[in-house]
Design brief:
Blueprint (H helix, E strand, L loop, with lengths): L14 H5 L8 E10 L3 E2 L2 E2 L6 E10 L3 E9 L10 E12 L4 E11 L9 E10 L3 E8 L9 E12 L3 E12 H4 L1 E15 L2 E10 L1 H6 L7 E9 L1
Antiparallel strand pairs: 1-4, 1-14, 2-3, 4-5, 5-6, 6-7, 7-8, 8-9, 9-10, 10-11, 11-12, 12-13, 13-14
């Protein structure tokens, strides 16, 4: 998930290294999701320049909490990059810490297979969740967005069920990018989700960023509305 096309090279983590997971001897479950969205928005910035995106993901989880996942989407960056697709590969662990608290830790690589330049980069992440409805997420990379500079992302969010089929969601995020871009930015998102027929959901999300994001990523940040049809399995 990239906000600007960059040409700095990244010593890539191999596909085999990311996708290999010690599942032997442990029962594993498979899950996934598919989404059609009017705009692929990541951390407040559009990755498709406001165009539609088709997305799909698959996750294998062992009974000890270890997992491996892959997720893909179309993207639209600067023409000279020729980047048209994104593939996110992750390995991690998730599990309950207590009755109310859960933790998810992961190593993620963002890959752009069709790009003419090396845009690949990786991120260490952790998400702490309280009662399945409130979360704190932190991500760190020493090669953020393939710049060979460090960056730290933090987000706090919550979801509020309104009956059996509707929920509201909100999140506030901050991206520290001083080493890479000389500035940081903040974004907010508010959304409503309607689970109208299992496993399908309709999601409507409003995104907005501060002026720093607009200066860092002109034309990609700012206020926008995203509508999506999604399904999990």
């Amino acid at each position: 998930m990239l906000s600007l096309p960059l040409s700095r090279a990244l010593p890539a983590l191999g596909l085999a290294a990311l996708s290999s997971l010690p599942l032997a001897g442990h029962a594993a479950t498979l899950g996934g999701n598919v989404t059609l969205t009017s705009d692929y928005v990541w951390r407040g910035t559009t990755q498709t320049q406001g165009d539609f995106a088709a997305q799909a993901g698959l996750k294998a989880t062992a009974d000890n909490g270890l997992y491996a996942s892959a997720w893909g989407s179309n993207v639209k960056f600067a023409p000279d990059t020729h980047a048209s697709s994104e593939l996110d590969l992750a390995v991690g662990w998730s599990g309950a810490l207590s009755q109310d608290w859960a933790l998810d830790t992961s190593l993620m690589q963002y890959r752009y297979p069709s790009s003419a330049v090396d845009l690949n980069w990786y991120e260490l992440g952790a998400t702490l969740t309280f009662r399945s409805n409130t979360w704190l997420q932190v991500g760190w990379s020493d090669d953020v967005m393939a710049t060979r500079a460090s960056g730290t992302y933090a987000q706090i969010g919550t979801r509020v069920p309104l009956g059996e089929h509707v929920r509201l969601e909100g999140a506030l995020g901050h991206y520290r990018l001083e080493d890479a871009y000389g500035d940081s930015y903040t974004h907010v998102q508010l959304g409503a989700v309607w689970a109208f027929k299992a496993p399908f959901e309709l999601r409507l999300t409003w995104h907005d960023t501060d002026s720093a994001a607009k200066d860092l990523f002109p034309g990609l940040a700012g206020s926008r509305v995203e509508a999506a049809l999604q399904a999990g399995f």
